[in-house]
Amino acid sequence: MKKVFLSILAILLVVVGLVAGKAVFDNSRKDEVTGEKVLNFYNWGDYIDPDLLTKFTKETGYKVNYQTFDSNEAMYTKIKQGGTNYDLTVPSDYMVDKMAQEGLLAPLDKSKITGMNNIDSRFLNQTFDPHNKYSVPYFWGTLGILYNKKKVSADQIDTWAKLWSPQFKKQIMLVDSARDILGMTLISQGKSVNDQNVADLAAAKGKLDTLMPNVKAIVADELKIYMAQGEASIGVTYSGEAAQAMSQNSDLAYLVPKDGSNEWFDNLVIPQNAKHKDAAYALINFLNKPENAKQNAEYVGYATANKGAYALLPADEKSDPAFYPSAATLDRLQVYQTFNQEWTQRYNDAFLEFKISRPS
């Protein structure tokens, strides 16, 4: 009986093995026919219209695996560590320079890119990427102050220094970013956001510490939600985040302080170890189309670098100086420069010490 059972079991195993082998063979044939229609996209949170990704997949057949990060430094660390092969990511200006210098980006094959004529020339050939060897402009904007008009007037906060007023005790939310928060503090002291002087940084850290009584929270993407819900009177954040909050709460407004701020540029780049570069070029070309760029700008809330998309925007959006600043405002803005590892760490450590000093 035992021999009969073993014989039957052996036959069953052979049959199962044949079936499994056929299944594997069929799947491999399917992959061979259809190809690898995949794009691994590593982007900031809520930084593309999901409907556009659906449209992209429908038009091209590429399935998008979408993952997010909350800071340039987090993205840089993940790309540098390797392990996960992203095909497209979105660093800001100074980080494009840093990643290019470290060999983390693939030079763009311009023959595979369409729609560059739709990009405003002001955003091309920037110092962080001469001749756009590695990057295609995506969005741009400013760091500024989002405020509740029922609780604060614009003239009360039209310079960074005014945030230190005792009247704003526990009323301010700060974006969780070392460069931005130390940068605004340096500007309030008449210094550059790219300052690399030990004494200046120490002085900025000392002044920033005195802002803590006014700080209600230090948060990331959720800042716009809290502000829309009326959780704080003032928020230091990015123009696009402010736009999204303002769309949810008509009592909110946004301004760029008179003493200047940061103008930033986010860009599409292909990591050096990307496995699906054709898919990356396909999405770049898709996003370069004015109608898609316009839809994306209206969803995200940031200023578009695509002049074709800008022309399609409603007049009230194009004329809003908070999001498309005047030439006079632009002249007061500074672009972040790349720091080496030592100075990146100095800024990060100073900001971490500031956050740790916050009472629990």
TrEMBL record:
InterPro entries: SBP, Sperm_putr-bd
One Pfam family named in its UniProt record: SBP_bac_8
SUPFAM superfamilies associated with the record: Periplasmic binding protein-like II (SSF53850)
UniProt keyword annotation of Transmembrane present: no
UniProt-recorded name of the protein: Spermidine/putrescine-binding periplasmic protein (PotD)
Species this protein is from: Fructobacillus cardui
Major localization class: periplasm
Alphabetically ordered keywords of this record: Periplasm, Signal, Transport
Domain of life: Bacteria
Keyword Transcription: no
Subcellular location: Periplasm
